[in-house]
Amino acid sequence: MPVRRWRTAVVGGVATATLLAGAAVAAPSSGAGTVGSEGAGDPYFPRAGNGGIDVVRYDLRLDYDPPSSPRRLVGRLDGVAVITLRTTQRLTRFDLDLRGLRAERVRVDGRLARFSHGRGELRIRPARTLPAGEVVEVRIAYGGRTGRPRDLGGALYGWVTTADGAMVASQPDGSSTWFPVSDHPTDKARFRFRVRVPEGLVAVANGLPVDRTTRRGHTAWSWHAADPMAPYLATVTVGNFRLDRYRDRSTGVLVVDAVDRDLPRSAAAGLAATGDMLDFFERRFGPYPFAAYGAIVDDDDLGYALETQTRSLFSGAAEEEVVAHELAHQWLGNHVSVERWADIWLNEGWATYATWLWAEHAHGRPARRAYDAVRAIPASDPFWHTVLADPGPRGLFDAPVYDRGAATLHALRTRLGDRDFLRLARLWVWRHGGGNAGTAVFQALAEEVSGTDLSGFFDAWVRTPRKPA
Ligand code: TRP
Ligand code: ZN
């Protein structure tokens, strides 16, 4: 999708990136050469995403064999990825991200392309030079064994093989463990999925269910996610699910839930509030931004939940507070997405603040009390030593990102007053929905809405590793 503000270029073999302020930049940079850069220019994950291309659509056709024994959690994934992309510069070569699996054949517009693969980069050399601004179809046959990848902090992520299938949670850079991808939130695209699994298992992906066909002991599940989506928000979760579909009465949103049959009924009890939450968040953040919603509640445990787009993913149980958090992410994180990973507090701070607002509305627990609890943390506590707008790639999901993030928003609300704060929230989603925006743009919008200079406020709350006065 064409919303991107990173301009990347390869200079002397080193990827450099310039953050451009203002509106979307479509023009290819001059003097960039004809090799797409190996990364999108995000300092936290330098090789994630790719330069020179802008993916429009992924059409993923996957065949998955879950582990034959729960004692060895290794599955087999074979796929064909049909990727429609637009070139943003003249290209003799470009990359996609792919880790752990092997590319077997690559075609560009039907013609076999040369390729090489290493360090998570699939380097593709089309048979002809691609002009800038051209839409091409890249078809990649690939496959291999799947396992249980871990991230820097030790959490499982990406294609996580489970005894009865797989749980797929790719934030921040795990999409390349299951398909060739330009894995950065600035390269949003539409997705189609067709996932073939042994009969009896269910494959749940983003968006709307299209159809399912069973033949010779296998069922192919098709899903269509037509709304632009950052690749880390894509999921294909395979398991022993019961699907439950309904239209929410007050908002009209179509909800498709998938709850593991092996879980007790109580594990999904938190989902009962989904309709009321949709209604509550629509009043605060504007219309629900996507074609459908729903939850996946798997019996396996990742130790965290993920706001997979249109279909939030929960491990073990869906607790009410987490249900509210992941739903709020659909507006804040998914529709409006980070410009780069350092901005993660905008996702987690907003989603956490949304749960404070929900608790106030549904249970009469004032947001102010949650704020006071954060303020009660002593200044000497390491909690305050994080630079909120730059927590580092290992600190993306640490407590300050969530709680100092939410406290920052509450303090901002106190500063602006309820009316301007609500206008800010709505305008943020309205203006940047479908795209990306970072901390500087958020501050500028808060200043625009309030007509005040907030540089002191933002310096103290998000740029200083100390407790604000
Ligand atoms: N974004 C998730 C949430 O807060 C949390 C998350 C995603 C996470 N990936 C992670 C937490 C990896 C720890 C490790 O809803
Ligand atoms: Zn979150």
Structural description of this entry:
With 469 residues, the chain is of the alpha+beta class. Among the domains are: 232-332, Zincin-like, CATH 3.30.2010.30; 341-462, Orthogonal Bundle (Neutral Protease, domain 2). The protein is 23% helix and 30% strand. The chain contains 8 helices and 21 strands. Mean pLDDT is 94; it is low at 2-31. It binds tryptophan and zinc ion.
- Kindly report the CATH topology of the domain at 341-462: Neutral Protease, domain 2
Mean pLDDT, to the nearest integer, reads 94
CATH C-level label of the domain at 341-462? Mainly Alpha
SS summary, helix count: 8
Bound molecules: tryptophan, zinc ion
User: SSE order, as H and E?
Assistant: EEEEEEEEEEEEEEEEEEEHEEHHHHHHH
Roughly how much helix do the residues carry, as a percent range?
10-25%
Poorly predicted ranges = 2-31
Structural class: alpha+beta
Strand order of the largest sheet: 7-6-10-4-3-13-16-15
Global morphology? globular
Could you tell me the strand content as a percent range?
25-35%
Distance, first to last CA: 42 Å
CATH superfamily of the domain at 341-462: Neutral Protease Domain 2
Q: What is the strand and helix layout of this fold?
A:
Layout: E1 6-11, E2 14-19, E3 53-65, E4 75-87, E5 94-97, E6 102-108, E7 111-112, E8 114-118, E9 121-125, E10 135-146, E11 158-162, E12 165-169, E13 189-198, E14 202-205, E15 208-215, E16 218-229, E17 236-239, E18 241-247, E19 254-260, H1 274-285, E20 295-298, E21 312-315, H2 320-331, H3 344-363, H4 367-375, H5 399-416, H6 418-432, H7 439-450, H8 455-462
Parallel strand pairs: 3-13, 19-20, 20-21
Antiparallel strand pairs: 1-2, 3-4, 4-10, 5-9, 6-7, 6-10, 8-9, 11-12, 13-16, 14-17, 15-16, 18-19
